[in-house]
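Worked Example 4.2. Consider the chain below.
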Amino acid sequence: MIALGHKLPHWRHMLYYLAGFTLTVTPGKAGEAVRSVYLRPCGVPYNQSLAALFVERLLDVLVMSLLALLILLLRPDYVGLLMIAWCLTLGLGWFVTRPWLPAMLRSWGQGRRFGHQFDRLGRMLEAATVLLRPHLFLFGLALGMLAWGLEGTALSLIAREVGVSIAFAAGIGIYAIAVLTGALSFLPGGLGSTEAVMGMLLITFGADSAAAVAITLLCRIATLWFAVVLGGLAVAVLSLKGQGPASECKP
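Applying the procedure from the previous section yields the following structure tokens:
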């Protein structure tokens, strides 16, 4: 929020961010937009907080697409699938960051029945352009690579504990492809599709069916469901302190 001109106490901002994880099991993690409700009493307009969420999701897709390329080190036969994903990702990223798009959306909204929705979308994209400035974009990309890379590394470590030896590059690539597939399926939290792809890829890399199921379940508990629990704890802390969504924003 600092980049958008808002200063909040770091601890409170962190709790707001974590609170969004309670609704991470929603299509495209759209439920994490609940952070906007927490931030509104602190003077952060909805279009700016939603822009931050939009940029976060865009960076997630770019990062996961990059990490998915690691699987090519071991399975070059997947190059066609990954190139298709990359073309779609880059095309979407190029389109939504065009400087003329916000003005065009707001122009479309004038005099139309649902014109206010186009206007809100245009304002959100205008705020997003601030967060997509090169230095902020590259910093966010680097943080995303670190965070998602560690989750992929966790998959490899879990596999080794189960008795399946998977290279770290393969583990990160498998995790990235599975999460991307789950996101593209638009199922809540990618449930079902992420697990299916992850299990299939684990079998491709030498795991038997039982081991693949065990690794997949443990990985999802350690990543997805741990985040949901963490979000619930953050909501509980905010509620105990009397700083829920409708509370006045104080240091």
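The mean pLDDT is 84. Residues 2-44+132-240 form one domain. Compare this with Example 4.1 before moving on.
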